[in-house]
Amino acid sequence: MGKVITMKLTKKIFILFLLSTIIIGGSIVLSLPITAQKNTDDPSNIINKYLEVMTTGNFEKDMAFFANVPVGMKPYITQTYSLPLEEAEKKGLVQKGKVDYVSILNEQRDFVISLFGEDAWLNTEYSLEKVNSPEVKEQWIEKSTKKIISEETGLSKLKNYWDKISEKEGINPEELFSHSKLASGKITNEKALKLKKIKDKYQDNEPVELQLVPFYELYKVNLTFNGADTAETGESNFYFYISNKHDKWSMFDGLHWNIPFEEPTGDI
Amino acid sequence: MRKIFYLLFFSLLTITLINIPSIDRVEASTTNQVIRFSNIGGGTGSEPYLYNSTTVEGLNVNGKTLVKLTDIANILGATIYINPYNPSEWDLKRNGQTLGFFVGDTFYYYISNYYIIDPASQSNDYYSIYFNGYTDVATQTINGTKYVRLTTAANQIGALLVSWNSTSQEARVFDWRVNGTTPLNDNNKYVVGGPWLPDWSSESSTHLSDHFVIGEFTDHSSSSVNPSYYSQLKMSVNQLQSIENVRYYYNNNSSFTPTSGFRSWYKNAHTSGSWDKSFHMRGRAWDAGEDWLYDKVYDEFSGSSSKPIYSDGGFWRTRVTNGLSQGYEIERMEGKSSKWLHLQRTPGYDEARLGP
Q1: pLDDT tens-digit profile of B59-95?
Q2: Per-residue pLDDT reduced to its tens digit, A217-237
Q3: CB pairs under 8 A between A and B
Q4: DSSP 8-state secondary structure symbol assigned to residue B226
Q5: Does the ipTM surpass 0.95?
Q6: More confident residue, B27 or A160
Q7: For A155-164, A182-191, B315-324, which range has the lowest pLDDT when averaged over its residues?
Q8: Is 80 exceeded by the pLDDT of residue B350?
Q9: Measured between CA atoms, how close is B324 to chain A, in angstroms?
Q10: Among candidates B53, B57, B273 on the partner chain, residue whose Cβ is nearest the Cβ of A256
Q11: Residue A239 has pLDDT above 70, yes or no
């Protein structure tokens, strides 16, 4: 009897051990590639891959490379379709279509060839320009010490500051931040004018501020084709973006360029 | 013994779950949406050409596009201010304007505070232009991130146009300060409004300065042609000061009506002879049709010379500092059958060919 119980227990232990191993092992396997790429991934890999894809033009085959990435500019802009966002939303048009990646990438490829020659994609050089990420996070700073503080501390210090100002000026602090309906136009109300002047006088000296800080790396990859960065027709500054937003270097935004600038003759 | 192993198993399971990368959990009706911010590259199509654009990830909640408060502030050169007496109020501040949103609420308000120097008394007249309204999606926190309605935030803080590009499936915000991921500077203060505000048409008689009202500077499109932007307004306070000065010094302190103030993208695209990056679309130019006003400002710009400075882009640039009009550039009118005064202030054409 005792032997049977021991065997049952051993079996349960074995199953538990097996399950734990599978879960832990799986978790490690899933996390390994991310960690490895984070440490060893080189931005040049993704740039070279992009140039290779653009050179060969096998976009159907390499579609995974562009998955979920904004495709960049369409060369023949008059063929794009646009309307005010709110109208599109009301008509239910938003997110109802699909981006024709292959067609646009082919157009981009051919456009560069038409401007810089048949071998343009084979004779491409690039330079990297580090830029701030467009997406940022909030960070509260104590101005005098440059110390990072919590939002709670920041708001508390801000409130203390305006409480003291209000006491000194003999006003109700909440009136300074009131958003009740005001009459538009010239300020004729003496109290409203006084509150405005107090806020103008003291707001630059607030002890804390809310800053916006980048949280991933972004590179603008500037391209030249056959040694030129500007086409004879004036198109210039060809570039795309790569980032490590998702823990490894990947495409962030497709090919862009500046269209030729035309000097105006006036401004009616 | 068995208890120990169960304990070990659940401990390991807990540790494993903690270590699995966190997955954002969002509402079922929510999908990601690419939002592209771009400067105005010109053209005459249904939206401007892209210029120095950048993208962020927004959300589509029940068919409406929301943007992170941090992202729109960062790219458009605004700051975020949290009301210390009501932390559920999130303000976007840019160019002398405050646009306040409230968490869990559709209500928002807008204030632009500024002053105009009265040319007659040389005293400061203080103005406060206030509007409020309701968005169609509440301001909210999703997965700990602050989101606001894209159209309301971008339109009311002074973007030129917010569009949907079906070819790229992108929501697009066109604004003069966009410069990739680092916005251009603009020291002007503005007043902004448009048909997205409730009762906007009834605001047309609101004074922006002593002698000029909102309706004199708004876009003059027909609502049937341009339902989203037909009476859009963006006007710099400097321009308001100049028009008051010109009225007082060069029009015998008598009334005149500007023939053109702000122009929407659509209106400008359909205005024959207009520049596709017009200062009218930046809120930094107004026109007045009278010949003598042009001649007087031209004379002021000439100073002690026979002509003002010949400037690129079809403009005359002033030779004097602190001229009475405070203008910097006027459009050249040589060879034109009738003259009108098109006045701009600094930064002028050379400094702001593609900027605010």
Answers
A1: 999 999 999 999 999 999 999 999 999 999 999 999 9
A2: 999 999 999 999 999 999 999
A3: 259
A4: -
A5: no
A6: A160
A7: A182-191
A8: yes
A9: 22
A10: B53
A11: yes
Q: A136-174, pLDDT tens digit by residue? A: 999 999 999 999 999 999 999 999 999 999 999 999 999
Of B241, B16, B156, B56, the C-alpha closest to A21 is B16
Q: Which residues of B touch A268 (CB under 8 A)?
A: 271-275, 278, 287, 331, 342
**Pairing mode, strands A236-243 and A250-258:** antiparallel
Per-residue pLDDT averaged across A120-144, rounded?
Answer: 97
Q: Which of residues 82-141 of A touch B (CB under 8 A)?
A: 82-89, 92-95, 97-100, 104, 131-138
Closest CA to B163 of A101, A241, A77: A77
A267 CB within 8 Å of a chain B CB: yes
Domain ranges of chain A: 44-135+217-258, 136-177+196-213
DSSP B62: T
Q: Which domains does chain B have, with CATH numbers?
A: 28-186 (3.30.457.10), 188-356 (no CATH)
Distance to chain A for B202, nearest Cα, Å: 12
A34 touches chain B (CB under 8 A): yes
Looking at 3.10.450, 3.30.420, 2.60.120, 3.40.50, the CATH number of the domain A44-135+217-258 comes to 3.10.450
Verify cis geometry, omega within 30 degrees of 0, for the bond prior to A264: no
Can you list the pairs that B249-258 forms with residues at least 24 positions away whose Cβ atoms lie under 8 Å?
B249/B119, B249/B324, B249/B325, B250/B292, B250/B293, B250/B296, B250/B297, B250/B324, B250/B325, B251/B290, B251/B293, B253/B120, B255/B211, B256/B288, B256/B290, B256/B293, B257/B216, B257/B288, B258/B212, B258/B216, B258/B217, B258/B286, B258/B287, B258/B288
